[in-house]
Amino acid sequence: MANVFDVAQYIVRQQGKMTTMKLQKLVYYCQAWALVWDAKPLFAEQIQAWASGPVVPDLYNVHRGKFEIDSLSIGNQGKLKKHEKDTIESVLSYYGGKEAQWLSEVSHLENPWKQARKGKKPGENSAREISHAAMVEYYSSL
Question: What pTM did the predictor assign?
Answer without folding.
Answer: 0.97
